[in-house]
Amino acid sequence: MDKNKVLMAVVILGALLLFVFLINLKFHEKIEKSDLKENASNKLRNVKVAVWYQYLTGGRLIGRSDKEAIEILKDLNVDLVRGWWRWKPLPFSPNDKQFEKVFGKENLEKLVLSGQTWQDYENIVKFFKKEMPNSIFMASFGLQFIPRAKDRDPITGELITRDRAWEMAFDPQKHGFKMPKAEYQCIQAKKRHWVRKDINCKEVSEDFVKNNLSVFWGDPTNKDWQKLAFHIAQKLIDGGADAIWIDQYLNPSASAIALHCLEEQKTIENCDFSKALKDKRVKEIINAQKEFIDKIHEYGLSKGKYVLVGSWGVLGKIEAPQQVVLIENLIPNYDFVVTTVSKEEVYNKEIDTQRWQNIIKKHKEIFGKIPIFVWFDTGYYNSPMHIFSQYLNKTEQAEFLEKADKFFVDLSEKENVTIVFVYPVSGQMMGPWKEGEKKTLSFQCCCSTCKDKCLISGEKGECGFGSYDALAPEFETYETIKELTQRKKAKPEPVFSQWI
After folding, report:
1. Residue 303 three-state SS
2. CA–CA distance, 84 with 40 (Å, rounded to integer)
3. Which residue, 378, 156, 179, is CA-closest to 264?
4. 375 C-beta neighbours (distance < 10 Å), count
5. Is 317 exposed, middle or buried (0-12, 13-18, 19+ CB in 10 A)?
6. Which 8-state DSSP code applies to residue 319?
7. Where does the pLDDT of residue 118 fall: very low under 50, low under 70, confident under 90, or very high at 90 and above?
8. Which residues are CB-neighbours of 161 under 8 A, at least 6 positions away?
9. C-alpha count within 13 angstroms, C-beta hemisphere, residue 223
10. Tell me: the pLDDT tens digits for 293-324?
11. What is the pLDDT of residue 500?
12. Is the CB of residue 165 less than 8 Å from the CB of residue 210?
């Protein structure tokens, strides 16, 4: 009997010790995760110099090696670089036979030439971290490009056919709204000039839309869509990304709110958003988008790092009614946001102070004090980057960079929020151009004086390239950018007490 009591006591004591051990382990894991987040967030808050270099490997086309690209970043003493953009399927390596078979030999050769393979991504991030271990590498991808009608999972290698992609595409009727799937997809494509202006989206057939669009707007509640989108984020993290920026992330949630407002309240302008947010159909989509961001954070932590995630913040356009009500329910757990200088500010070569006061006021209400990065938005007619590169001459570009940089440094100090103007170093899309509009391309010398350095003479049968480069003879803003970075990194003169 005594032996049984002793045995029972040992078992109970062992169970208690195991329980205490597990609780202690969980506690330390929680502390460790909290420390990882705090360290990453502090590092982000202390960023002074940030640059946008669309693909760090992209300079190969004009004879700039990967080493020289990294030297540019070191020369600028960069704290953060946006250095990769996934917007379409990429080869795993230059010898990706499956990619060649499915997406075409010409497409493969073009991507290999410009250093856009997953192998290139991993190598350039590794090189960047070796040379600049204390700097942040930001990768990015566009939600509006998932899924393409022909796509590939970057983790599993699984091919996404047009039929599979169409299944992933957002269908309002599946969620209980009235608008047909074809009409919704057509409207989204028309906004981006992906279908002709004369097409009436109310009259198009599903077969027409399904078989003619190259990209569909995805459904964030669809399991296959979630898998593909998450695997893109996972691939970027596995390759070494410290931060991920997702373009147009909240579009599906905003679309669901708009559908509710149109169908249930017959208005968007005077819609009661608090009612829209109680709609189960809307909540389902919002919750799926919130969970997706949390999943990225959790995956990063499982790899021993906290991956910073962000998307667009306050854009400073027409103020949405009840914006705070909307945002409190809508916004995922972002670590930073991005906004843009406006095309009017660029064209007038003057920062709109009132616009930015409104942006910062709304930012604090919505996001608190998470960092804001400001760059030139690109990729559509008369975008800020288009105006900057095509309508300002070299001197005006340099002057605007200096003016904008000083404004945001002063604004950051005044508002006690990290606000960083992101310098356009290389790769920003300058187009599209309207018919007959004058073009200023970069490195037009690839057809003449610098021909021997360039791998190709240009794009689309033209001399030169449609992406911006601060070192291009057509722009020459690099020295201005370098001077601005040096000012930010210059150590302040010690005050008298420090001399004693």
Report:
1. coil
2. 20
3. 179
4. 22
5. exposed
6. P
7. very high
8. 150
9. 0
10. 999 999 999 999 999 999 999 887 645 545 55
11. 30
12. no
Q: What phi and psi values does residue 101 have, to the nearest 5 degrees?
A: -70, -40
Rounded to 5 degrees, φ, ψ at 138 are -105, 125
Q: Are strands 336-340 and 50-53 parallel, antiparallel or unpaired?
A: unpaired
Using CB atoms within 10 Å of the CB of residue 393, give its burial: 0 to 12 exposed, 13 to 18 middle, 19+ buried: exposed
Six token digits for residue 373: 């990065």
The amino acid at 99: F
Predicted local distance difference test score (pLDDT) of residue 273: 86
| Residue entry with tokens 């981006």 | 192
182-220 pLDDT, tens digit per residue, is 999 999 999 888 888 899 999 999 999 999 999 999 999
Cα torsion for 300, 301, 302, 307, to the nearest 10°?
10
Tell me the pLDDT tens digit for each residue of 396-443.
Answer: 999 999 999 999 999 999 999 999 999 999 999 999 999 999 999 999
pLDDT(4) > 80: no
Count Cβ neighbours within 10 Å for each residue of 222-259 and write b for 16 or more, e otherwise.
Answer: bebbbebbebbbbbbbbbbbbbbbbbebbbbbbbbbeb
> How many CA atoms are closer than 13 Å to the CA of 124, on its beta-carbon side?
32
Chosen CATH of 31-156+227-247+273-447+471-490 out of 3.30.70.3340, 3.40.50.2000, 2.60.120.380, 3.20.20.70:
3.20.20.70
Q: Which amino acid does the sequence have at 230?
A: F
- Reading the block at residue 135, the tokens are 């700097």
In three-state secondary structure terms, 372 is: strand
- Give the 3-state secondary structure of residue 55: coil
Residues 157-196 as b or e (16 or more Cβ within 10 Å = b) = eebbebebbbbbbbbbeebebebbbbbbbbbbbeeeeebe
Can you give 142-166 as a three-state secondary structure string?
EHHHCCECCEECCCCCCEECHHHHH
Strand partners of residue 312: 338
CB 228 within 8 A of CB 151: yes
Question: Which residue, chain included where needed, has tokens 């669009």?
Answer: 213
pLDDT single digits (tens) 447-463: 999 999 999 999 988 99
Flag whether pLDDT at 495 surpasses 80: no
